[in-house]
Amino acid sequence: MPITVKEPYFILETERTQYVFGIDQAGRERHLHWGKKCLPEDFFIPEYEDENSNHSAQDEAQQEYTAFGGTVYRECALKARFSDGCRETDLAYRDFRLDGDTLEVTLQDRHYPLAVTLCYRVTPGCDILTRWVKLQNSGTAPITLEKICSAELSLPGEQPYAIHNTNGAWGGEGLPAVQTLTSGALTFESRRGTSGHNHAPYLLASRRAGEASGEVFFAALAYSGNFKAEATRDLFGRTRLLLGLNDFDFSYTLKGGETFETPPVFCGTTPGFGEMSRQMHRFVREHVLPRAFAKKPLPVLYNSWEATGFDVSCENQMRLADLAAAAGVELFVMDDGWFGARRNDRAGLGDWFVNREKFPQGLAPLIAHVNALGMDFGLWVEPEMVNADSDLFRAHPDWTYHYDTRKAHELRHQRVLNLTREDVRAYLFERLDSLLSDYNIRYIKWDMNRPFSETGAENLENPQMLWYLHTQAVYELVDRLRAKHPDVQFESCASGGGRADLGALLHFDEVWPSDNTDAVDRMTIQRAYSLLHPVKTMRAWVTDVGGPNKPTSLAFRFQIAMQGALGLGGDLTKYSEADLQLCRENIALYKEIRPLVQFGDLYRLADPDADEYLCTQYVDEEKRKSVVFLAARGTRFYKKRMAVRFDGLAPEKRYALCWEGENVVKSGAYLMEVGLPLRIRGADFNRIVRIQAAE
Ligand code: DGJ
């Protein structure tokens, strides 16, 4: 049984881990264990008796969900304000409900009609625990929720943990930030409306950990809006993680009879970062992604943005489509520029009608051409935005977030539509639904290119709810469109990786992790993305942006992009016949190895930054097939020799591979323990090595 209840103990077991909490004499839920499996009968709930005038036993307890109130001074997971002015919550265990793999433990406020249900799900076959919380107001007066976390997690032991998040930016998403938390708190958050490019809505905590060693605890919030991820370490050396909606400029009015359900947190503990990624990749593919395309390989696409920019026309798109199809592309996506008065980024957003100057007969001739070439057609949209220079804004100047008394700050000349308004959502649904109904569109790239500002929303009784309601509105719009158009794939893009999170992956099939398509930078960006997100969902284009200071060869660019969901984005009309031939060969190869890349187990054998070369291996479930990518920009200090030790193979099986021009047959044990010698030489070194079980 994955979940056992032996009151007062709740014991949750995944494949290899155990999570235990209990209810103490005072009715508080107390965290007891997260780690390897122990005998259930050994658990007990410690009582703290050394309370003094400045040290409260209540503050010392490790709880599953700390509510603000009483003598609790540590960071809380929940803060509520009641209608009579009371700002403290006092929860006591009420009851539990066990339904298969889901456990719900309800705590009830001792005075007010607020119930807090802690929800836990164990997914068979995985080492992932899902946590979320339901808050219910069973009275009549509203309750204002000022801080809501999805989960609080206590880590074992008193030694400090290294806390990992990102310190990224546009074009540099996912840049790692690792700090040892010795005392106090570390906070990673977004205040921008989306999860953003800077910090990530997850926390990794590690001790002495590498790819295949040490202790790793991870918790990822599936949410694309303003989030807060906090790690704290108290005077006893105990580390806690809190993840939830950001309480900055936030409150949520829970009216009588209403329930609020938080976004989920997916968490687990593994011996090393490699197993963490493999666990999460499998879990997200099998249990998080929208079902329609989760098990299908994602197509090789061409995207027009870097080739034609806003200057799209029926003719130039057809020409690109011809070349893309000849190279083996399966999906042709027309990016920005096809609608309204869109000639540049100053006009047109909001007017989701085909520009008749550019496409006199609508999109039908282009789509027919693309389809006749054997490709599907996809379209770019940015539904949450409006340019002041648009028919939509002229007709509805009040449809944006704004304050009448404040200057509207435009970024990229655009403003954010107030998606908490029903009429705005209805307009967007009608426009997108019409496009999807009128045309044979199989792919939507949903972009979002600026953070919020002037967040006034007169339509809301409590405008501080807008951050949350906006994110929900995006999810709901996508879900509604998907329900009506089940054959359409959706990509989440927000100026690159501004919404590249697990919340997006509950609704979108894939994400665009960065606008930076430089292959050298991509090695770092893609590695970061692969930590918790399956590479199947990572769109990766080969473009002409070799980096102004560091152009890389086309073969090198392919090799990096083929480690995700391959796409092309260069101006194919400028490619030589040799370049086009290279495109054909690499796309053909990618189609062969695609099942491994998109559905295999990922092993990061070398870190492109720390080791100066990248080595990534994908292995199928049966351990019969594998593909290895080796790439180096060039190494420094004459450090060019190494033995590549593979991973994920069956030690007893024999494998055949072609290694630096030689056919080799070796056991899995040899390949993993001894490895094969490699000399990296020259610029843009890149190899793709296929491994196949020999018998
Ligand atoms: C930002 C995206 O990240 C790009 O890929 C492209 O779609 C542009 N927006 C279009 O404006």
TrEMBL record:
Pfam families: Glyco_hydro_36C (PF16874), Glyco_hydro_36N (PF16875), Melibiase (PF02065)
Binding site for substrate: 170, 335-336, 412, 445-449, 493, 515
Catalytically driven reaction(s): Hydrolysis of terminal, non-reducing alpha-D-galactose residues in alpha-D-galactosides, including galactose oligosaccharides, galactomannans and galactolipids
InterPro entries xref list: Aldolase_TIM (IPR013785), Alpga-gal_N_sf (IPR038417), Alpha-glycosidase_related (IPR050985), GH (IPR017853), Glyco_hydro_27/36_CS (IPR000111), Glyco_hydro_36 (IPR002252), Glyco_hydro_36_C (IPR031705), Glyco_hydro_36_N (IPR031704)
GO molecular function terms listed in the Swiss-Prot or TrEMBL record: alpha-galactosidase activity
Location of the Glycosyl hydrolase family 36 N-terminal domain: 30-255
Gene Ontology biological process terms, A to Z: carbohydrate catabolic process
Domain Glycosyl hydrolase family 36 C-terminal: 615-685
Keyword annotations: Glycosidase, Hydrolase
EC number(s) from the headed UniProt entry: 3.2.1.22
Residue positions of the active site: 447, 515
Broad enzyme group: hydrolase
Family statement drawn from the similarity comment of this UniProt entry: Belongs to the glycosyl hydrolase.
Name of the protein in question: Alpha-galactosidase
Organism (species): Candidatus Fimenecus excrementigallinarum
